[in-house]
């Protein structure tokens, strides 16, 4: 039940430790949480493609069983959401695509919420384990949405701001002073 949360929090704490040790990319909790979400997404996306013979994680069949009956082509939808999770993870890592990835992932998490609710209500197991209860699934999904939106509002790096402002790095030269 707590595996997905651990896949988020473990890497986020690890990244924050790296930030405390001087790696500037992880100098904030926001950056560490965003990268932790990316790691979690890679791990959860892998389950979308795993055959049922693999028993160390939920399989494609497990995830297809979670898809509510009103969603067409459940097996294909599992593949599509897996690809979207991988693309979202890649987008979170790059500062230039982080905002778009955050918005896209927030929308994806909202769209996947009915599957989580359906799996909890219908008591659908994952990898042979009992279904995760609704009281845990909904707040967990809200946490993922919140971090994705946090990523969407992340500021650009200093070099991006300089570029947008027309300033050359290391100088006070701006587009206005060159005219």
In terms of DSSP E residues, the strand content is: under 5%
Low-confidence parts: 157-164
Which structural class should the secondary elements be placed in?
Answer: mainly alpha
Percent helix range: 55-70%
How far the N terminus sits from the C terminus, by CA atoms, comes to: 62 Å
Number of strands: 0
User: Biggest sheet: strands, sense, closure?
Assistant: none
Instruction: Tell me the overall shape.
Output: globular
Cα-based radius of gyration, to the nearest Å: 19 Å
- Total count of helical runs of at least 4 residues: 7
Order of helices and strands: HHHHHHH
Mean pLDDT: 87
Give a nutshell description of this structure.
This protein is an all-alpha fold. 64% of the residues lie in helices and 0% in strands.
Account of the protein in words:
The protein is mainly α and 179 residues long. It has helices at residues 3-20, 29-47, 60-66, 74-93, 98-121, 134-152, 158-165. Helix content is 64%, strand content 0%. Helix 2 (29-47) runs antiparallel to helix 4 and helix 3 crosses helix 4 (74-93).
